[in-house]
């Protein structure tokens, strides 16, 4: 009965927890993971190291929990655990001795370490670290008198990648590879040059060398996705190029026997989306084999089986994460689905896993009614390990999620989508409906817990989300239906989904609303220029003008080459035809904009253009600016609650009865 319904409240964002980065012990009996929770005082997600037996018993913290902890990594003998913590005031490497429980800070690094990796003998750490380029300002000016308060000196920039979303304006420099004794000491830099060492690094079997991936091409602006695998000798720092592919080659992992390397990448065909393939080669780069040529899905992450005879890997299919084992002899077997759950704000796919020596697996398990929890897979049996959200979510009525499929009205393409019902849903009643559109555009939603959507369902809205053409997890052809053609029939797919849900009879056609973030903001602003069926719209961190976007976004060398037929000034007509700003003259729908002021992916100038255009046209509109927020608006819990709260405020204003019934 409706009286028993206890919907989520905005403040409940602080109760969410997630189990992430599982690292299972070789014996498969227990697993260390990062327990992520929301800290009300700092308004941030914090990570703490916890351990649990794979039967779900003995859940306990591993540290005193005074810092933000991440990247737990077992030593080769599984007697020590390395991790990164900011307990000392900056991100540093720590070790925990598993027998005594003693922990110690072992580094004093000037910048945060990444891709932490133990040498095979357990005596060295390898890691990546930002390495500033020491440079004098090109002009030398007289200095300020002692005690004077002069303006901050101007900054001189001449690098291509001068700012990044989430990181802000970068100092000059690159991410390079270092080694350091595990008991502490001076880090030694192994790579140098004007390129970044990115992603996984992997020690050779004998510990004499490290494999890494980098884009060292002479003109990385012209080849933004190209990268290769290199080998650097630890003693001499001598570097050898291992691959020479046309496209990315990344995440090298040396096989347990030391004779082969697995990596991911693809042969670049200059398409907006290409699936990451899993390759194996000899350590000298010979005999490269594509193991997943026939899969037509992107390999998300992978790990060698302990016996070296196969590789476990994860991939998304139809909005859901899967785990599979590919033997080197060519047999692939899907082991489980339900991998995901790490995206807790909107229902994006994405999960993690870890394999024990005996092939037992621990993975983050997705569910539409709770964020990521750990699950254990043995043979074909899956069972839950953690229940971190049980305490909190069992007290609430969470919106139920139902899958649907439809056939496109423009061709025979099949489109998948989901309906989230408000708690206490009664199909004999009429509900307002929100269509929530994902970004990317080459990304996918799935049956994943999504706090933003749940909070809107908790306010009485039916929330609909789909994977229109362009989405990932349905194959390369489906994703590239919008190659150089975005937005286009993806709009029709979205409208087909609205029609389908409306036809079910429980949605009030006068109370249809539309919203989306980033690529979803593109499609929202595009949609309201092509239909007046929505009573109001919320456009979140959108691109409004592809020309200004490609000339202000952080990934500009990529966007201008892979998403468009050429550079903006050579293709003005194409860029403008696909820009929502070109169609703003047809918009009559009231629009609320919502964007982070420090967004360098879809800079707030896009939002401002749209806002000012709407005002010039006299369309009812408002703009919410989120101070300090990057493209990932949900990172601060207070912003995670602000977005659905503003959506509900705006949509309620344009409901037939002004939202009075809520
Ligand atoms: C190699 S494609 C890089 C683009 C990137 N793709 C990831 O999804 C991206 O940032 N896309 C934007 C739109 C684009 C700039 C026009 C986007 O829609 N992003 C999505 C996904 C996302 C979520 C959190 C942080 C970064 C991306 C979104 O914001 O919902």
What brief labels describe this structure?
14% helix, 35% strand, serine-type endopeptidase activity, protease, single chain, mainly beta, hydrolase, signal, serine protease, 662 residues
What do these coordinates show?
With 662 residues, the chain is mainly beta. Helix content is 14%, strand content 35%. The longest helix has 17 residues. It starts with 16 loop residues before the first strand and ends in a 9-residue tail after the last helix. The model has no long low-confidence stretch (mean pLDDT 96). The ligand CSCC[C@H](NC=O)C(=O)N[C@@H](CC(C)C)C(=O)N[C@@H](Cc1ccccc1)C(=O)O binds next to loops. The site of the ligand CSCC[C@H](NC=O)C(=O)N[C@@H](CC(C)C)C(=O)N[C@@H](Cc1ccccc1)C(=O)O has 12 residues, from loops.
What is the structure about, briefly put?
This protein has 10 helices and 38 strands. It is mainly beta and 662 residues long.
Number of helical runs? 10
Proportion of β residues? Answer: 25-35%
End-to-end Cα distance:
17 Å
For the largest beta-sheet, the strand count, sense and barrel status come to:
8 strands, mixed
What strand line-up does the widest sheet have?
A: 31-32-34-33-35-36-37-38
Structural class: mainly beta
Quick one: how many beta strands? 38
Radius of gyration: 25 Å
Uncertain residue segments:
none
Q: Note the overall shape.
A: globular
> What ligand species are in this complex?
ligand LTI5PX6W
Mean pLDDT: 96
Measured as a percent range, the helix fraction is 10-25%
Protein name: Acyl-peptide hydrolase
Domain Dipeptidylpeptidase IV N-terminal: 171-259
Keywords: Acetylation, Hydrolase, Protease, Serine protease, Signal
Pfam family, one: DPPIV_N
């Amino acid at each position: 009965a409706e009286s028993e319904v206890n919907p989520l409240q905005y403040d409940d964002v602080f109760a969410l927890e997630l189990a992430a980065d599982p690292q299972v012990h070789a014996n498969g009996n227990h697993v260390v993971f990062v327990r992520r929770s929301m800290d009300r005082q700092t308004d941030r997600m914090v990570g703490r190291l916890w351990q649990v037996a794979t039967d779900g018993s003995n859940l306990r913290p591993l540290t005193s929990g005074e810092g933000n902890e991440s990247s737990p990594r077992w030593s080769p003998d599984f007697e020590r655990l390395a991790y990164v913590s900011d307990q000392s005031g900056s991100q540093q490497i720590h070790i925990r001795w598993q027998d005594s429980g003693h922990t110690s800070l072992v580094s004093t690094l000037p910048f945060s370490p990444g891709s932490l990796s133990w040498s095979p003998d357990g005596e060295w750490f390898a890691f990546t670290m930002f390495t500033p380029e020491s440079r004098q300002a090109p002009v030398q000016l007289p200095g300020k008198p002692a005690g004077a308060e002069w303006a901050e000196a101007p900054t001189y920039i001449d690098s291509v990648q001068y700012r990044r979303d989430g990181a802000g304006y970068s100092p000059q420099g690159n991410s390079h590879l270092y080694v350091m004794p595990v008991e502490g000491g001076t880090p030694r830099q192994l790579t140098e040059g004007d390129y970044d060492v990115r992603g996984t690094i992997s020690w050779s079997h004998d510990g004499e060398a490290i494999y890494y991936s980098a884009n060292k091409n002479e003109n990385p602006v012209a080849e933004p996705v190209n990268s290769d695998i290199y080998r650097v000798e630890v003693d001499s720092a001598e570097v050898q190029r291992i691959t020479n592919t046309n496209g990315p080659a990344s995440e090298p992992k040396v096989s347990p026997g030391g004779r082969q390397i697995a990596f991911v990448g693809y042969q670049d065909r200059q398409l907006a989306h290409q699936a990451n393939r899993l390759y194996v080669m000899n350590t000298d780069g010979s005999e490269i084999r594509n193991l997943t040529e026939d899969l037509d899905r992107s390999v998300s992450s992978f790990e060698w089986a302990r016996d070296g005879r196969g590789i476990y890997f994860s991939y998304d299919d139809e909005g859901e994460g899967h785990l599979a084992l590919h033997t080197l002899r060519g047999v692939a077997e899907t082991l489980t689905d339900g991998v995901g759950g790490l995206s807790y704000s909107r229902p994006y796919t994405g999960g993690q896993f870890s394999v024990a020596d005996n092939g037992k697996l621990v993975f983050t398990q997705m569910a539409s009614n709770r964020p990521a929890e750990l699950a254990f897979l043995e043979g074909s049996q899956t069972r839950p390990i953690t229940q971190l959200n049980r305490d909190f979510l069992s007290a609430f009525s969470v919106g139920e999620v139902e899958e649907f499929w439809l056939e496109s009205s423009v061709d025979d393409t099949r489109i998948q989508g989901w309906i989230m019902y408000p708690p206490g849903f009664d199909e004999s009643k009429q509900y307002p409906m929100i269509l929530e559109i994902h970004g990317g555009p080459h990304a996918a939603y799935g049956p994943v817990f999504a706090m933003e959507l749940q909070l809107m369902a908790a306010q009485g809205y039916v929330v609909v989300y789909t994977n229109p053409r362009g989405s990932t997890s349905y194959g390369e052809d489906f994703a590239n239906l919008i190659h150089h053609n975005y937005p286009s029939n993806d709009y029709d797919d979205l409208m087909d989904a609205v029609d389908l849900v409306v036809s079910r009879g429980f949605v009030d056609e006068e109370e249809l609303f539309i919203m989306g973030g980033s690529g979803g903001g593109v499609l929202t602003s595009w949609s309201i220029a092509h239909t007046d069926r929505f009573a109001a719209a919320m456009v979140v961190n959108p691109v409004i003008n592809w020309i200004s976007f490609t000339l202000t976004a952080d990934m500009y060398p990529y966007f201008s080459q892979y998403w468009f037929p050429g550079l903006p000034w050579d293709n003005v007509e194409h860029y403008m035809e696909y820009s929502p700003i070109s169609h703003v003259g047809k918009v009559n729908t009231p629009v609320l904009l919502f964007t982070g002021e420090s967004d360098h992916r879809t800079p707030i100038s896009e939002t401002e253009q749209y806002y000012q255009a709407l005002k010039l046209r006299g369309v009812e509109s408002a703009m919410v600016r989120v101070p300090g927020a990057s493209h990932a608006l949900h990172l601060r819990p207070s912003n995670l609650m602000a977005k659905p709260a503003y959506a509900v405020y705006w949509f309620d204003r344009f409901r037939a009865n002004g939202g009075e019934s809520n």
